[in-house]
Automatic annotation (TrEMBL), chain A:
Protein name: Sarcosine oxidase subunit alpha family protein
NCBIfam families, alphabetized: soxA (TIGR01372)
Domain (SoxA A3) ranges: 520-602
Lipid biosynthesis found in the keyword field: no
Residue ranges constituting the FAD/NAD(P)-binding domain according to the UniProt record: 172-425
Domain named GCVT N-terminal: residues: 617-887
Organism of origin: Thetidibacter halocola
From TrEMBL, chain B:
The protein's name in its UniProt record: Sarcosine oxidase subunit gamma
Signal peptide positions on this chain: none
Gene3D superfamilies named in the record: Heterotetrameric sarcosine oxidase, Probable tRNA modification gtpase trme, domain 1
InterPro entries (UniProt xref): SoxG (IPR007375), TrmE/GcvT-like (IPR027266)
């Protein structure tokens, strides 16, 4: 059994017990425990079931690389799946349940899959479920979804009660990893005065050295760590953060840091996670190395663990993962575990080492001196047991697995060597090189990630760089720190140097394991991928490691193959008869371990999920029951339904009230860009298709803007304010876009033209007073002459209305007598209220965007985004009158002269009237004879705007029809949404209402 | 109560701040005279914000300044600048109603801003008397430091509620970063 030792545990505080629940059973641990160490202390070795075969699975590791011990953490609104027990710090009241089991962890129906394992090989789903096609969606997929998967997704109705935030930090050097390498590198870089940020993913400094010991600068490693942290804390230019993981490295020295502030104290104030958005000149990754499992049969049984993890639990938490532990290792480092266990008074029946040593290296000799039996040239043929390992079968490593001897044990500590954590080095393109001597990939210093200047911006330090011994680690870290700030190299603090025998790479144990053993030797615990699966993939022709990964799902689980990738690709290269470097690795992508969605969202939730732009009259709309329409980030009233009124009825009422009396529209969102300078007229002549420079002061002109490709992009009314100054109105969505368009041309092409622009959209509330009684209303407000003589159609005037300063434009988007009144935004609400008050007896009616649309469609006015879609030129819309023939050039002119643009075959704007008066569906297509190459019906037009017209009491529409204007009176057939029902419509003039324009010019 | 339960800084909207945009050749004497004349403040250099009391000149770009005056003076000040610049290529626009302004006060204003804006807020990089045009979360914004413990943030009027929510959230009790 696994249990808490009577003494020891450098990270726990035995005076502070902590109570927690696992699968609804109350258990006890200590402050400083991780959930994993506390579970082991309570003899909970088996903590979950595997993804595919539902095999019992136990804790394997002690850190971020853990593949098995994933739990559902928390309840209700705080429920979170797939949390690693090894990186979850214990707190009072912690609630966790195991994953992927039904009905219980101990008895699981899905485990039957394990009996079917030989029928579920690599690629099984692809092979089996592809036919018959409909079965996938209705039978196979639901079944697989039921039996597969890891954690349970949170209830969609719950809302995360925690808060999250972002933080922007700018530093000279970012050091990722707070082991001895990170500490030394930070110290070396900080000496230059550079601003240094050092982040460590765990709650503790020192990394492995704090467990494995050694002497630095004449003092024990732990003392050196404490002293160095203190030195760094005392430096003004250094910031240290624990519980902060380097999640990803991106171009231009951008790094994401994931800080877990309150995961270990969920009741505390403040954000749970903070996402650090770091810009750094240089990055040092001191991310250490991860131990590799060994692929022998039954290596996934609970109780089979990484050797380093076993001694972590003993040294850090005073927890014995087993009473009798067999160590199996192909390198000297594994012996440390045997020695540590023995020192803690635990039984180590044997160390199994496939190597044969002529002269014992120091650690081997030390183990033997401690009375541990070392079996050289031997291997584990298989681990035995069910929910827990009960023993191992010893065999000759060079053989096929014939049993020589059995050893009873309840824990197997395995070490297949170490793999440097090269993830962050690789995120931005750092390349790797295969180190055959150490049997691992290490960063290739000649192929570092480079910045804009072509120089490396990521450096690696310590074991992440392939240095496994203290002395080398410190010297490498010192070098990295100095190089990052451009200092000369300098000796690092001295440390004891060690001698070790070389590793003997073991990718499969024993070396000639037969089929039955290979089919039980796990590579990827989380996704249930075995040695036999990768070999099968190779036989079936998956030669690329990226393809094998996707076919077998090796390394595709939430741990992204931290334990399995190197072992898996070694098996693949062996099966392909190639060298490991030829096969290469899969791509390392951020984040290093999963980060919370909350951290990514930061503060963006609820009221500040996204900005909502509000006009000066927004509050009135809200108070008066507006139905909102999102227009970009604005909210505009769609209509104002009265009590008991549908939206449709409201729109009808608003249109009729405006056409017969007076309506009020909040048009404040329209873009208002001032263009000033002696070249302003010339500039606008280039921007608009028509002539603006000839516009007299005091007058307004409608204009069209096109892209360089000739397509219509915006429209609006331009007013000339004085000789040098124009005010350009844009569409609501065009305000920022067109302002940027203007600035781009001015800054990149016409930088010598004397033109300045300013976006004054939000300086003014713009309120349209529309309808036959509009003039009466403004006259009642008083202050300026708004008569036809003083202020004719398409002119503007400055003055005051009801003592509010106002600029009044006689422009109309409805076809009625209409004034658009711009007042300072701070007085917009006052003006709105005044109009409602003064116009009450005139039946004044606020209207929304839908009434606006209906009225403009009745008048045949186009709308950017309805009649245009980025492929429509003004000529298609019959707007030739607004295209100057006199101008030598304007943006889009040349494009509009290309053969396809001038073709007679283009679809052009017409009005459409259904024969039965019904409303055509929006976007409906008019069909033509025959079918195209894809067997689809040929088309000859489509509907761009379609409404019920309250004014005409029938459906009206506009559309683009092949040769449309030449086909007036012709009937074409449109199809409804079902693609079958026909609607006949007659091609007519698009101006349905007041075609002579008499009403707006009164 | 421990300090952890206090807001990181005070956030208050500045009602009715007058603001005038000027675009022109900032090296031209007439332009300098026109803005310093109405503001009563020295001409700022690149990325500087000069202020005296409630009047200030902010450097906004190589050819743009923002002049802050009391709201009731803005229209007259803009007219004064326009006449001073008659015949010179420049644009003067009263944007007093187009903006919302906030004042942040307290010892941790640097952290509050660094949670929202991609700006190096370290004392070495961002000093009193400096201005930045940037974004706060999802909206365009600018800010300047009046002194070590006072910042002024401005954005478009339409997103004033959003900005207010952002600043108050960033200043939530217990969320101190302890970085600067």
């Amino acid at each position: 059994m696994s249990t808490r030792l009577a003494t020891g545990g450098r990270l726990i505080d035995r005076s502070k017990p902590v109570r927690f629940q696992f699968n609804d059973t109350w258990l006890s641990g200590f402050e400083g425990d991780t959930l994993a160490s506390a579970l082991l202390a309570n003899d909970k070795v088996m903590v979950g079931r595997s993804f595919k075969y539902h095999r019992p699975r136990g804790i394997v590791a002690s850190g971020a690389e853990e593949p098995n011990a994933l739990v559902n953490l928390g309840k209700g609104a705080r429920h979170e799946p797939n949390q690693r027990a090894t990186t979850t710090e214990l707190f009072d009241g912690l609630y966790a349940t195991s994953q992927n089991h039904w009905p219980s962890l101990e008895f699981d129906i899905g485990a039957i899959n394990a009996k079917l394992a030989r029928f579920l090989p690599a690629g099984f789903y692809y092979k089996m479920f592809i036919h018959p096609r409909p079965f996938w969606k209705h039978i196979y997929e639901p079944f697989i979804r039921q039996s597969a998967g890891l954690g349970r997704a949170p209830d969609p109705e719950t809302r995360d009660p925690d808060t999250y935030e972002h933080f922007y930090a700018y530093v000279d050097v970012l050091v990722v990893g707070g082991g001895v390498a990170g500490l030394q590198a930070a110290k070396a870089a900080a000496k230059s005065g550079a601003r240094v940020l050092l982040i460590e993913q765990t709650a503790h400094w020192g990394g492995r050295a704090a467990v494995d010991g050694g002497m630095v600068d004449g003092q024990p490693a732990r003392d050196w760590i404490a002293a160095t942290v203190k030195t760094l804390e005392g430096m003004e230019n250094v910031t240290l953060r624990t519980r902060c993981m380097g999640a990803g490295v991106y171009d231009h020295g951008y790094v994401l840091g994931y800080e877990r502030l309150n995961d270990h104290q969920p009741q505390a104030d403040g954000p749970r996670h903070r996402l650090w958005r770091i810009r750094t000149k240089q990055i040092i990754t001191a991310t250490g190395a991860i131990e590799r499992p060994i692929s022998f049969a039954g290596n996934d049984l609970p109780g089979v663990m990484l050797a380093s993890a076993v001694r972590d639990y003993v040294v850090n938490y005073g927890v014995a993962p087993g009473e009798r532990t067999v160590v199996v290792t192909n390198n000297d480092d594994g012996y440390r575990t045997a020695i540590a266990l023995k020192a803690a008074g635990l039984a180590v029946p044997a160390v199994i080492d496939p190597r044969v040593h002529a002269i014992d290296p120091p650690l081997v000799a030390q183990a033997k001196a401690a009375g541990i039996e070392v079996l050289m040239g031997r291997a584990v043929a298989k681990a035995k047991g069910g929910r827990r390992v009960t023993g191992i079968v010893v065999t000759a490593h060079s053989g096929e697995g014939a049993a020589l001897r059995e050893i009873a044990c309840d824990c197997v500590a395995m070490s297949g060597g170490w793999s440097p954590v090269v993830h962050l080095w690789s995120h931005c393109g750092g390349k790797l090189t295969w180190d055959a001597h150490h049997a691992f990939f290490r960063p290739d210093p000649a192929k570092a990630p480079t910045g804009a200047d072509g120089a490396p911006f990521v450096h690696v330090a310590g074991s992440a760089n392939g240095y496994l011994f203290l002395k080398d680690v410190l010297q490498d870290a010192e070098n990295a720190g100095r190089v990052s700030v451009g200092l000369e190299r300098d000796p690092a603090p001295d440390a004891n140097s060690e001698h070790a025998a070389p590793i003997h790479p073991v990718w499969m144990m024993p070396a000639k394991a037969g089929d039955d053993l290979r089919a039980k030797a796990w590579l990827d615990y989380q996704n249930d991928v075995k040695v036999s699966d990768v070999q099968l993939a190779a036989r079936e022709g998956f030669e690329s490691v990226e393809h094998t990964k996707r076919y077998t799902t090796l390394g595709m689980a939430t741990d992204q193959g931290k334990l399995s990738n190197i072992n898996g690709l070694a098996i693949l290269s062996d099966a392909l008869g190639e060298d490991i470097p030829q096969v290469g690795t899969t791509t390392f992508r951020p984040p290093y371990t999963p980060i919370s969605m909350g951290a990514i969202a930061g503060q963006a939730r609820d009221e500040i999920f996204q900005p909502i732009r509000k006009t000066p009259v927004h509050a009135w709309h809200e108070e008066n029951g507006a139905v909102w329409e999102p227009v970009g980030q604005w909210r505009r009233p769609y209509c104002f339904p009265r009590k008991g009124e549908s939206k449709h009825q409201a729109v009808r009422r608003e249109v009729r009230a405006t056409r017969n009396g007076v309506g009020l529209l909040d048009a404040s969102t329209l873009g208002k860009i001032v263009v000033k300078g002696s070249d302003a007229g010339r500039f606008l002549d280039m921007l608009y298709t028509n002539l603006m420079s000839t516009l007299p002061v005091g007058k307004c002109r409608y204009g069209l803007m096109c892209t360089e490709n000739g397509f219509l992009t915006d429209d609006g009314v331009v007013a000339r304010l004085d000789e040098d100054t124009f005010l350009c109105h844009t569409t609501t969505g065009g305000a920022d876009r067109i302002h940027a368009h203007m600035e781009e041309w001015l800054q990149t092409e016409w930088w010598d033209w004397k033109v300045y622009t300013a976006n004054l959209t939000e300086q003014y509330a713009q309120i349209a007073v529309v309808g036959p009684k509009a003039r009466v209303l403004l006259e009642r407000l008083g202050g300026m002459d708004v008569s036809k003589e003083a202020l004719p159609f398409m002119q503007w005037a400055d003055g005051t209305l009801g003592s509010i300063p106002a600029r009044v434009f006689r422009i109309s988007f409805s076809g009625e007598l209409s004034y658009e009144v711009a007042v300072p935004a701070g007085r917009g609400r006052e003006f709105w209220d005044l109009c409602l008050h003064v116009g009450a007896d005139l039946g004044i009616t606020p209207y929304g965007t839908e009434a606006l649309h209906v009225m403009r469609a009745e008048k045949g006015f186009i709308m950017i985004g309805d009649e245009t879609d980025g492929t429509v030129i003004p000529q298609d819309l019959g707007l030739n009158w607004a295209i100057s023939k006199k101008k030598a050039d304007y943006i889009g002119k040349r494009a509009q002269e290309r053969s396809h643009m001038t073709s007679a075959d283009r679809w052009q704007l017409v009005g459409l009237e259904t024969l039965d008066g019904s409303v055509l569906p929006d976007g409906a297509y008019a069909v033509a004879d025959g079918r195209n190459a894809n067997g689809q019906r040929n088309t000859q037009g489509r509907v761009t705007s379609t409404y019920y017209s309250p004014t005409l009491d029938k459906g009206i529409a506009m559309g683009l029809v092949h040769n449309g204007p030449a086909r007036m009176g012709e009937v074409v057939v449109f199809l409804k949404e079902d693609g079958e029902t026909k609607v006949k419509a007659r091609i007519v003039n698009p101006v349905f209402y007041d075609p002579k324009g008499e009403k707006q010019d009164v | 109560m421990s300090e952890g339960f206090e807001e990181l800084c005070r956030v208050r909207p500045i009602a009715r701040q007058g603001m005038i945009t000027l675009r022109g050749d900032l090296s031209a004497k007439a332009v300098k005279n026109a803005v310093t004349g109405v503001a009563g403040v020295d001409m700022p250099s690149r990325r500087e914000a000069r202020h005296v009391g409630e009047r200030a000149i902010l450097w906004m770009s190589p050819d743009e300044l923002a002049v802050l005056v009391p709201h009731e003076e803005a229209a007259v000040a803009a007219e004064t600048m326009r006449s001073a610049l008659a015949g010179i290529h420049a644009l003067v626009a009263d944007v007093s109603d187009a903006r919302a302004h906030f004042r942040l006060e307290g010892d941790t204003i640097r952290e509050v801003i660094a949670k929202l804006a991609p700006v190096d807020m370290s004392p070495a990089a961002m000093q009193p008397g400096m201005v930045r045009r940037t974004r706060f979360a999802q909206v365009a914004a600018g800010f300047w430091l009046r002194d070590e413990a006072t910042a002024q943030v401005f954005c478009f009027r339409s997103v004033a509620d959003y900005m207010s929510g952002l600043l108050r959230t960033a200043a939530t009790p217990g969320s101190a970063v302890g970085y600067f």
